[in-house]
Write a structure and sequence with these properties.
alpha/beta; six-stranded parallel sheet; four-stranded mixed sheet; 13 strands
Length: 285
């Protein structure tokens, strides 16, 4: 019998991992919850502000699916996880292949460090790698996950979708949320003998196929925005010149004011911001 603790058990991926592991007879499943009133034998409360509870810290395996919308908060609680774990506990950190994203253009690529999401994932990987028994699980575009599902729903409602002309021939790596959960569970069941690739995906799709829409190529070659001013701002924001904490603060304000969201009209959608980079950057060649 192995004890497996799932952090972020109420999230989309966490629920699927718990569902699969709950069927295994040799697994004692513990869900970490934030509501103290719901604590039970198989549910352990954690406030994500103090050390991980002993019942979780001494588990055989910890699957970290937890994440909030606050970048600094995510950094802090991942430090707490690593500082709390037993040296014998295996940590499965759900990261993202976004850390391999690259813009197009030699100068842009040379100076690129990433937006807040990319930096957060890279920083958390560095933190969790301080624990000897850590596996980094890096899903690609995850279909069935709310963020990408909402984006593709907007695509479906649009008559035309505009992407930069350099996106012609772009291919993106994708995986379904349930497939991520299945991989995590199979890795645990194998005793961690299964191969963990740098990126976790099950298919590579041409951009047009993923979008499943009429795609038109605009004249712009900008990595982020059609507007030269907005594009220049993003160029510096994601560059090595700007420290992580500044990017976290600035991008949080950008998101709250909707500046970085995809611009839409009634009939058309023009993919911009970091979504454009993820779907048509140099890594999609």
């Amino acid at each position: 019998m192995i004890k497996v603790v799932v952090l972020g058990a109420n999230g989309g991926l966490g629920q699927q991992v718990c569902k699969l592991l709950g069927r295994e007879k040799n697994v004692e499943l513990i869900s970490v919850i934030r509501d103290l009133t719901q604590q039970s034998e198989n549910k352990v409360f954690w406030d994500y502000l103090s050390r991980l509870p002993k019942a979780a810290a001494c588990a055989n395996v910890v699957v970290n699916c937890a994440r909030s919308s606050c970048y600094e908060y995510n950094i802090r609680f991942n430090k707490l996880i690593v500082n709390s774990l037993s040296e014998h506990t295996v940590l499965l950190n759900i990261s993202s292949n976004c850390i391999f994203a690259e813009p197009r253009g030699t100068l842009s690529k040379l100076l690129f460090k990433g937006d807040a999401y990319i930096r957060e994932k890279a920083e958390i990987e560095a933190i969790t790698n301080e624990h000897n028994n850590t596996f980094q699980i890096r899903p690609t575009i995850v279909l069935g996950e709310s963020g990408w599902d909402e984006f593709l729903a907007r695509v479906k409602k649009s008559k035309k979708v505009f992407v930069p002309k350099v996106s012609s021939g772009a291919k993106v790596k994708v995986i379904y949320a349930n497939e991520v959960a299945e991989f995590v569970c199979s890795l645990i069941k194998s005793g961690f003998k299964s191969t963990v690739e740098e990126e976790l995906y099950t298919s590579i799709l041409p951009l047009e196929v993923l979008l499943n829409s009429t795609v038109e190529y605009s004249a712009t070659t900008n990595n982020y925005f059609n507007s030269l001013l907005n594009n220049l701002f993003m160029f510096f924001l994601v560059s090595r010149f700007i420290p992580n904490w500044v990017v976290y603060k600035v991008q949080s304000k950008i998101i709250s004011s909707n500046i970085s969201k995809v611009n839409t009209t009634v009939d058309n959608l023009d993919i911009q911001g970091m979504t454009r980079l993820y779907l048509s950057g140099a890594h999609t060649k």
